[in-house]
């Protein structure tokens, strides 16, 4: 499978861009969605959390008390490490499964932390959605009703614009309006179709 990794900082426009690829019938695997579901009821990860912390980590219906766990790992760095070691391999495995099952000429892996979590290794090409930090701040605040400080602290925890751009094979500049994304995505879609075909013919 030919995998295109799509990344970008908070509020850069990843979802807006990947929605446009979906309109070309390209399957999008979303690492954020997978990460959110890794603690679903009945799963291996929730069982491990429940073994370690008991009932205090769960609601009465057996689902995870996310606020409790967030506070716990905030207070105990070693628990944060334990949780990462538990969840990261499971998330990676689920990503691989979904990439393998995708039924489209190529598949997109969308991940805000593609570079930070070294998911670039799973990708044939890396596409970075790029905007200035000022635009990230403005659009995220408009979308989420959060303070500039909150957005800035998330931006500080993510890779820098330069680090992301260094990992990029292709870049979509998303400073202008959404309409200009359509032609950029169309051109890249044609490119990825060609590259995916070339990869298939050499295997
Ligand atoms: P996150 O990582 O926070 O999930 P994201 O990278 O997926 O964000 P989007 O949700 O696609 O970003 O875009 C952020 C906000 O900016 C959304 O409200 C979106 O509608 C808006 N937006 C995206 N592109 C543009 C654009 N070119 N012009 C104006 N607004 C835009």
Automatic annotation (TrEMBL):
<keyword id="KW-0418">Kinase</keyword>
<dbReference type="InterPro" id="IPR027417">
    <property type="entry name" value="P-loop_NTPase"/>
</dbReference>
<keyword id="KW-0808">Transferase</keyword>
<keyword id="KW-0067">ATP-binding</keyword>
<feature type="binding site">
    <location>
        <begin position="11"/>
        <end position="16"/>
    </location>
    <ligand>
        <name>ATP</name>
    </ligand>
</feature>
<comment type="similarity">
    <text>Belongs to the CoaE family.</text>
</comment>
<dbReference type="GO" id="GO:0005524">
    <property type="term" value="F:ATP binding"/>
</dbReference>
<dbReference type="GO" id="GO:0015937">
    <property type="term" value="P:coenzyme A biosynthetic process"/>
</dbReference>
<protein>
    <recommendedName>
        <fullName>Dephospho-CoA kinase</fullName>
        <ecNumber>2.7.1.24</ecNumber>
    </recommendedName>
</protein>
<keyword id="KW-0173">Coenzyme A biosynthesis</keyword>
<dbReference type="GO" id="GO:0005737">
    <property type="term" value="C:cytoplasm"/>
</dbReference>
<dbReference type="InterPro" id="IPR001977">
    <property type="entry name" value="Depp_CoAkinase"/>
</dbReference>
<keyword id="KW-0963">Cytoplasm</keyword>
<dbReference type="GO" id="GO:0004140">
    <property type="term" value="F:dephospho-CoA kinase activity"/>
</dbReference>
<comment type="function">
    <text>Catalyzes the phosphorylation of the 3'-hydroxyl group of dephosphocoenzyme A to form coenzyme A.</text>
</comment>
<comment type="pathway">
    <text>Cofactor biosynthesis; coenzyme A biosynthesis; CoA from (R)-pantothenate: step 5/5.</text>
</comment>
<dbReference type="Pfam" id="PF01121">
    <property type="entry name" value="CoaE"/>
</dbReference>
<keyword id="KW-0547">Nucleotide-binding</keyword>
């Amino acid at each position: 499978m030919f995998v295109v990794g799509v990344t970008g900082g908070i509020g850069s426009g990843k979802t807006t861009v990947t929605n446009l690829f979906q309109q070309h019938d390209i399957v999008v695997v979303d690492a954020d969605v997978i990460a959110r579901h890794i603690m679903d009821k009945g799963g291996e990860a929730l069982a491990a959390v429940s073994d370690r912390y008991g009932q205090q980590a769960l609601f009465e219906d057996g689902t995870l008390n996310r606020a409790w766990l967030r506070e716990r790992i905030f207070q105990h760095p070693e628990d944060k490490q334990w949780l990462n070691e538990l969840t990261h391999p499971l998330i990676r495995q689920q990503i691989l499964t979904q990439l393998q099952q995708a039924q489209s000429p190529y598949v997109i892996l969308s991940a805000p932390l593609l570079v930070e979590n070294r998911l670039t290794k799973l990708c044939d090409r890396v596409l970075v959605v790029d905007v200035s930090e000022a635009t990230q701040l403005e659009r995220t605040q408009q979308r989420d009703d959060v303070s500039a400080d909150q957005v800035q602290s998330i931006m500080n925890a993510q890779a820098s614009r330069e680090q992301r751009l260094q990992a990029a094979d292709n870049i979509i500049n998303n400073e202008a309006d959404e309409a200009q994304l359509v032609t950029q995505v169309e051109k890249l879609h044609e490119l990825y179709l060609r590259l995916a075909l070339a990869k298939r013919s050499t295997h």
